[in-house]
Structures are given as C-alpha cells and as structure tokens.
Write a structure and sequence with these properties.
404 residues; mainly alpha; Growth Hormone, Chain: A
Length: 404
C-alpha cells in the first residue's frame, strides 16, 4: 500500500520558468562542484592529521576534532537550514553558504593555533549541512523531467568524488607544499564555486518549504526512513571511525613512508570511483541489496586490514579494497531514502544529510578515543563491528513500499 507522508509531491519547475542557458546541465554540474568542495572541506583533515597535529602541538586523536566538529554542526544545520531557509531563494542561500566556507578555509590556512582552526571549522559545518540538504533536491528543478535521474546522480556524485578523490588530492598537495596550502586551495575552489553558482543557477524560489512536522512524520511513521537513518549512522560511523585516521594507520601501522601515503589514498580514491561507476546505476533498482553488499564488504576489508595490514604492501593493497567497498555508499543511501519517501524528497534528503554528518562526527570521535587509548588496529575493529551491524540492520529491513 502506498504510504502518505503528509507532504504533496513536489512539482518540477517548468522549463519555461528557467532562464535558458542559466539552467540545465551547467547548473547541475555547478551544484555538484559545490557539494564536492564542501565535502572535501569536511574530510580533508583525514589526510592532514599528522602534519597539522605536529605543527600545532596536538595529538592525532585530538586533531580528529577537525572532522568531528564540522560533522556535528552539519548534522544540526541540515534540517535547520532547510526549515529556516524556506522563504528565501535557494541560489542566494547556496552562494552565501559556500562563500562563507571559502573564507573559513582561508582562516584555516592562516591559523596560528589549533583553537583558531577549530573555530573556523564550525562555519564549514554550517555550510556543509545546509548546502547538501538544499542542493541535493534541486536536480528536478534544473533539467527536464526525463533528465532528472541522471542529474540527481551527478549532484550526489560530488559526495562520492570528494571522499574518494578530493581528500587524496588535498593530502598530496599537503605533502608537496604543506598542509596550509591544502586549505588555501580549498578557499580558492570555494570562491570559484561561489562565482559559478551566481552565474549559472537560475533564480530558485522555494516551492514547498520543509517544516518540522514533516521531518517528525517521516521519522515516526515511515519504517524505511528510520532504517535508512539507522544504517547511515552505523555504516558511515564505522567507516569514519577508521578512515579519519587513515594517515596514522598507513604510516604507523602499515609502515608506509610519508611520501607514499598520498599515493595510497589516491589508490583508495580510484577504486572508489570505479565502484561508484559499476554499482551506482544498480542502486536505484536494488538499494537494499547494494547496501547489504557494501556494509558486509566494508566490515570484511577493515577486519582484514587489522589482521594483515601491518606491512606496507598489504596496507596499500587493502586501501584499494577499502575504496572498492565504500565507493557507492552515498548514492545507495540516497536512493534508499528517496524510495522510502518519494513524496517528501527534500525532507528525506535533509534527514539523510543530518544522519550522514552526525555519523562522520561520532565515528571520528569514537575512533579518536579508541586511538588515544590503544594501538592503530583498534580503530579498524571498531569500524568493522559497526559496518557489520549496518549489514544486519539492512538485511532485516523490508523494502520501501511494502506493507509491515
């Protein structure tokens, strides 16, 4: 039986309402660039923990707060910006958010103390949650209906590419020119994205603003949405409990030389992009099957890393396997949430973004506590256990749209 969320299906803006060349594919790719930039901002410290901590005088576990703080802020800002920004033009909100992130990254690049850097990361968190929650549901307003599925995949591809390519690129730049150069490059990229958003997006007045009642109904009345939120927390939390500390893992546990760590993360990224290309189209048809596969594979790879990753060749090879296991996760989770709440896409997206970023923050926090108290392989076992729990929860779930 078809479920009702209490929210009418959103109407796509007619093609005639879009100002010609300012909509369409260029606008879609610009939104994807914005999401890529912001997610790279959030995750960049993964590859820079050791040099940042060394220069600013904090331990690796404490340096992990650079991931935890914006993740927690983004988890709150995703629903908050969706609700509070309901009366304003989406183009203006997106440009303001990513422009603020460009300034915050410049502060990070110049920060004399860790506290200053961490304060700037709060602004990054606000932008991440708000931009992703609003931008993720705009594809149907920028292109004709028949092109909307591919446009949505392009927009959410920015999330995957950030984690599998943006972080390795930033890490390599940090190895070559210092960690401050990596943050400065993100400031430049954010400024470019701001200009492109203002230039290429049409005016996007709100159609059906999200309210707190809709968010509450989805969580209380829709079992598929609740399952999606729970699996997101477990799976993403498990991944980032370990991946946040990929640099200490590769350097301290596997014994890779510092100049090779960026290359290992590039291998992770290449494998992840390949997985996204192969599995991405299948996630719309069978999100449950793909999510069980991803969760189980991630748990297995992390356990193998803990058991056999103590040598440089094994560590590098297992990073490739890690990328393959994780590559299509954001697209799969988004498709599960949209299948669970097709009539409330923006609200479902806001909840997924909230859970995703909360999981990044809590995973990084848990991994930091484990790393401060134990040896590097312990964070891998922590991640493996959470990923296995995600696989079990998804395996037990009913497909969206089926009666209980």
């Amino acid at each position: 039986m078809k479920r009702s969320t209490g929210t009418a299906a959103p109407r796509a803006t007619p093609a005639s309402a879009r100002p010609g060349h300012r909509g369409g594919s260029p606008a879609v790719w610009t939104v994807a660039l914005g999401i890529f930039t912001l997610m790279t901002c959030e995750l960049l410290p993964v590859g820079l923990l050791t040099p940042v901590g060394s220069e600013l005088g904090v331990a690796s576990g404490t340096a992990g707060l650079m991931v935890t703080v914006p993740g927690l802020v983004a988890a709150v800002s995703a629903p908050a910006v969706s609700v509070a920004g309901g009366r304003f033009d989406r183009r203006a909100i997106l440009a303001l958010l990513i422009g603020g992130t460009a300034a915050a990254n410049l502060v990070c690049a110049l920060a004399p103390h860790f506290a200053v850097l961490l304060a700037a990361r709060i602004a990054v968190g606000v932008a991440i949650g708000g931009f992703w929650a609003l931008g993720g549901s705009l594809a149907t307003r920028l292109v004709p209906a028949e092109k909307a599925p591919r446009a949505t995949a392009v927009v959410f591809g920015g999330v995957s590419v950030a984690s599998v390519a943006g972080v390795p690129a930033g890490t390599l730049l940090g190895d070559l020119a210092g960690w401050r150069a990596s943050f400065a490059a993100l400031a430049v990229l954010g400024a470019l994205a701001t200009v492109l958003l203002v230039s290429l997006l049409p005016a996007l007045p709100p159609e059906r603003p999200v309210d707190l009642a809709t968010l509450g109904r989805l969580l209380t009345a829709d079992p598929a949405v609740r399952t999606g939120v729970a699996v997101t927390l477990l799976l993403i939390g498990g991944h980032y409990a370990a991946f946040t500390f990929a640099r200490p893992l590769l350097g301290g546990f596997s014994g890779l030389q510092a100049e090779h760590i960026g290359l290992a993360l590039f291998g992770f990224g290449a494998a992840g992009i390949a997985a996204n290309f192969v599995l991405g189209p299948r996630t719309a048809r069978a999100p449950k099957t793909v999510l069980v596969l991803i969760s189980g594979a991630l748990a297995a790879v992390l356990a193998l890393f803990a058991l056999f990753g103590g040598a440089a060749p094994a560590g590098a090879a297992l990073m490739l396997g890690w990328g393959l296991a994780y590559g299509a996760v954001s697209v799969a989770l988004q498709n599960w949430m949209l299948a669970g709440a097709p009539e409330a896409a923006e609200a479902a997206t806001a909840l997924m973004v909230c859970a995703f970023n909360l999981a990044i923050a809590l995973g990084a926090l848990a991994g930091g506590a484990v790393l401060n108290a134990s040896a590097e392989p312990a964070v891998l076992w922590c991640g493996a256990g959470l990923a296995l729990a995600a696989a079990a929860a998804m395996a037990a779930a009913r497909r969206p749209g089926t009666a209980p």
